[in-house]
Every structure is written in C-alpha cells, then in structure tokens.
Predict the 3D structure of the following.
Amino acid sequence: MTSVNLNIANLLFQVRGGEESKLIPDILGFAPFLAPETDEKPHGQMIFGGEWTEDVEHECTLFEFVFSDADIRCRFSRTASDYRFYMQPEDKVEQTLRLVYKLDSSTIVCATKNGQPCLNDTMLRYGLWFGFVLVCAENNRTLIHSSTIVHHQEAVLFLGESGTGKSTHTRLWLKHIEDSHLLNDDCPVLACEDGQMMVYGSPWSGKTACFHNKRFPLKGVVRLSQASENKIRRLPVIESFMALQPSCPPALAYDDILSGRMIDLISQTIRLTPVYHLACLPDESAAQLSCNTLFQ
C-alpha cells in the first residue's frame, strides 16, 4: 500500500492508500513536512480507498458549514461508535468524501461515495487538515486560527475574526520590528509539551505561502480588534478563555469529549501564557505597542 509520512508539530502523521497519498508531496505546503520511511508507529494515520457503506446507525449532526473557497458543503456528525466528516462538492453528491474516526484510535478511514479517488487538491488539503485536527486532540495539541510572528526566538499568536487585521498587524511587525519573521499566517499548531506552551508551523497557512517546519516557545497571545486608537490590556482568566476559544477548530465545540480536550488545552495555555486584547489602528505604533508590551 502506498504511503507518505509527514512530521507536523512533532507528530508522525501517515497518509496511506489510494491515489490520494501519491498526490500529497505535490500539494502546496506539504514538502517541508515530508518525513522518511520508518518502522515507528505513527501518532495518526489517514487511510484512503476505504469502502463506503450505508448503515442504519443513527447519525447526529454536530456542525454544518460551507467551505466557500471551493463551494464544498461540510458536515461533522457522530454515531454511537464513531465521528464522521463529509465534504460534498456543490451539486456533486457522488463525489462526496467521508472521513470516519473512532475516538482515540489515531486512525481516520476515508472513502468517496462513488468509489473513485478524490483528486481535488482543495478537498485533500482540507480533509488532511480535519484529520490532523482529530489526531491533535489525542495529543494535547490543536490547530489554531492565527497569524504567528517569531521575535527573539519566541512566538506570538495574533487572533481575531477574519478581516480584523491579523495579517496586516503581523506585516507591520515584519516591516518595523527587527528580528521578526512570520511562522504561519493562518493555522499553526499550539501544543503543551513538558509544562511549556509551544507553537509549530504547519502546511496550512491560508493565502500566504509560509510553510515552516519549526517550533518556538509561546511568548504571548494577542486578540485584535479594530479601533480609532491603539490600546492594549492584559486579560483576566475568563476573558483570556473567551479570547482563545473561538480560534480553535469550531466543529469540536459541538461534542462534549472533543470540546473538553480543547478546554483543557486552553486552560493550560492561559495558566502558562499572558493573553492580551489589542484595540488598534493598522499603523506602526500599534506594532510597537504590542511588541513593547510583550517583550519589554
């Protein structure tokens, strides 16, 4: 069976089977994360070419959304024995890709409704993202929606809803703050290792080609909002939690077990790391203010 190994966030993630695994090395962002063959047991694996079976087991929908970049309808559900994630291209039900995952099995089995390989790069990238989200939940990690700057070898997560200026703010750091570089512009991995919060680059970086297989200790977390002047304040515990939780994978929030694991990781983060709110303009002084607060 064809397979490809990936090392993401210090986890061995193996993609096996089907034509899909052959495509992974050529999909944008994955080359820096390719790993050699090994006898080591993977932390997680996705197996393509599985059989699609229709069963009578009751399926409860947890979360539905449209992946607008590619007109793909997505649905996350649960049965009594497993979790399921469906990706259906608009008006092409027969091309639906289904991921099936049993809790703590470290294995996601993938099948298409028509039995044909899924050769859509966008679906594969997003399917791999969701599969890796589930593996992270087993390993005290999460992918987190943020733009991440590294300064003096420490990482800062900038959080916020789409359009609030995360990428704009990190570009201001790159322009005006010496010894700064971008680790990831959309979905780095947040991990707790040996009592320390770490941030890893990932193959998923939005529209910015920034794919670094590196890790750095987490210096701080900053949630951004647009404002008519620049102000920053450190958040107390409850507000820190509220700042972080919306940036974790949203589908997991609708399941008690998976959301509990996210809560545990967020709790570790705010216990070990300062969290701030920055109300700001898109200007140099905002970048200087956040840098001075975090590092001086």
About this structure: The radius of gyration is 19 Å.
